[in-house]
Specification:
With 161 residues, the protein is an alpha/beta fold. The chain has helices at residues 42-53, 55-60, 73-82, 96-100, 145-160, and strands at 12-14, 20-22, 30-35, 63-69, 89-91, 104-105, 116-117, 120-124, 130-135. A hairpin with a 5-residue loop joins strand 8 (120-124) and strand 9. The protein is globular, with a radius of gyration of 15 Å.
Length: 161
């Protein structure tokens, strides 16, 4: 897993409209990268809806949110629509970003050979460096949303100093 202060691994992944979103293309603002195991699961819905509901506060801090899941763009589109998600959900169907960030969950849900992403959050600063990392000890644990927001706020305070 990449360390805080290191260059965040870049990725180019399709969104729900199959348009490519590249992390490096978002330089100049903080990016909250939220990997989640699977669309249409209870904890994932709760997590992504919490990010949806706090998006205005994050946007006010010059941050954007990207959700990343190994599901296909089509499933992610249905998931985003059902939950009125107002930020990009990206498909890491080839698992390249999941591997680069060290969050592959092999044999997920007891399915031999199936690799999902571990529930995890990475915050990338405006220069493309990792400022925050968190990986769930198991798929049922949600991130500490206040901690995520505080980490984004800290980036804003550092930029202002």
């Amino acid at each position: 897993m990449p360390e805080i202060g290191s260059e965040a691994p870049d990725f180019s992944l399709p969104n729900t409209a199959r348009e490519t979103v590249t992390l490096s293309g978002l330089r100049g603002k903080a990016v909250v990268v939220a990997f989640f195991p699977a669309a249409f699961t209870g904890v994932c819905e709760k997590e992504l809806c919490t990010f949806r509901d706090s998006l205005a506060a994050l946007n006010d801090l010059n941050a954007t949110v990207l959700g990343i899941c190994v599901d296909a763009p089509f499933a992610n589109a249905a998931f985003a629509s059902k939950n009125n998600l107002n930020f990009p959900i990206l498909s890491d169907y080839a698992r390249a970003a999941t591997q680069a960030y060290g969050v592959a969950h092999d044999d997920f849900a007891g399915l031999t050979g199936y690799t999902a992403a571990k529930r995890s959050v990475f915050i990338v600063d405006a220069e493309g460096k990792l400022a925050y990392t968190w990986v769930a000890p198991n798929p049922g644990v949600e991130p500490n949303y206040d901690e995520v927001k505080a980490a984004v706020q800290k980036l804003g305070a550092n930029a202002a100093s």
